[in-house]
Amino acid sequence: MHRRVHPGLTPEPVRFQQTPALRPGLRHLLAGLDGVPTLVLDSDTTLVAWNRLGAAVFADFAAIPRDRRTMSHLLFLDPDFRRLHGADLPDVARAAVAHLRTLVARYFADAALTSHITQMRQASSEFDTRRAAGPRCTRSGRTAA
Length: 145
Prior knowledge:
By secondary structure, this protein is mainly alpha-helical. Helix content is 50%, strand content 8%. The protein is built from eight helices and four strands, in the order H-H-E-E-H-H-H-H-H-H-E-E. The chain has helices at residues 2-5, 24-32, 52-57, 71-77, 79-84, 89-106, 111-123, 125-133, and strands at residues 39-41, 47-50, 136-137, 143-144. The strands form two sheets. Strands 1-2 form a two-stranded antiparallel ribbon. A two-stranded antiparallel ribbon has the order 3-4. Strand 1 and strand 2 form a beta hairpin.
């Protein structure tokens, strides 16, 4: 759209911001949600924090290396995590890939995000197929064909 409105102008690449340390208020909130399994995701879908019940319900996240503690790794490469989603897995996987496509469009100059996508495409044929086929995420966060 930008190129149609402003032909000849190229937008500056947006740099992806790595997660800063969790603020004390968010840590306090997370600790207070002890009756609800709670996960905190970074904007690139890296799992950065969780509460005790979240780990009990979903996975022992502390045992997963940080570079593999992403929603795409869990949804496409972890059989136990996939089973948790049951019949909803195809929709959840489609939405996760759509979200990553949106991130790549927004942060097209981010080498770490591009590397993550490349790694996932090599590690999971399902991810690669979904990535190639679409759908894309709309502004509302819902998926569209």
